[in-house]
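Task: sequence in, structure out. Protein: Fatty acid hydroxylase.
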Amino acid sequence: MRPDRNRQSGFRLGRLELVTGGIVAIGALAIVVAERRRPLRRRTQPGPDREFVNLAMGAASALAIMAAETPLVGPLARIAEERNRGLVRRLPLPEWGRDVAGLLLMDYTFYLWHVLTHKVPLLWRLHLVHHVDLNLDASTALRFHALDMVVSAPWRAGQVALIGLSPRGLRLWQRFFFLSILFHHSNLRLPEGLERRLAWVLTTPRMHGIHHSAAKDETDSNWSSGFSFWDRLHGTFRLDVDQDAIAIGVPAYRDPAETGIGRSLSMPFRSQRDDWAPPSNHR
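Result:
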C-alpha cells in the first residue's frame, strides 16, 4: 500500500473512531438510564455492591483483551486488507459491502463460540462466572473472567483472519458488539410488541433474560449476541417465557457471597459442582 493511501486510510479510521466512539458512549449512557427508569425484572440484589463487582471484573477483562487479543487482531486485519486475504476480500463488493459482510460473519462465528462456551467443559468453567450473576442488567455485560477473554483471543484472531475483516470493519464490529451486549443484557422493559418485532433482527433483553435463566433448557437457547438470525437459523430461538417466571443465575450458586470478586475469580479453579442441581445437593 502506498504512503498516501496509508495516510488516507489512517485519517478515515481516525474519523470512524470518533464517530462510532461517540455513538457508543451516548448509546451506553442511554441504556443504563433507561433500564433504571423502566426495569423489566425485579432486582434480587439491591445496592451498589454487585455493580462494583461487575465493573471491577469488567476492568480486568478489558486489560486481558488489551494484552491478549488486541495485539493479534489489529495486525491480522491490516494484513487482510493489504494482502487481500480472507473470505470477504473475494466478494465482488465495494469496500463498505465487504465491511457489512464481515460484520455479519463475525457475529455468526461469535454465535458458534458462545455455544462452545456452554458445551465444552473447560470453556464453561470460565463462562460460568458470567452466568452466576443473580441479577441481569447492563453491568452483567461486563462481568467476565479475565482468563475467559485470554482463552477466546485465538478464536477471535481466527475469525478476523478467515473472514478477512479490514481494520475499519473490525472497529465497526467491536462497537456494534459492545452496544449490543449492553442492550440485550440490560434490564430494560420495552413495549412487548416492539420487542417482538425487534427480535426478528436483534438480540433483545427478553431474549437474553431467557438465556440467563436458572433452568437449563431455557439457558440452552438464545445464544445470539448481535443479530438474532442465528438462533432462528439453528432452531435455538425462544421468546415464550414470562420474565417474572425466570430465576436469573445458576442453581448451584444461589448465595450472593459466592458471586463476589474473590470467589468469582477462583471459581474456575475450584472443584466443580453439578451446576444445574440446587444448592441443597452440594456439600
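Residues 118 and 124 are 5 Å apart (CA to CA).
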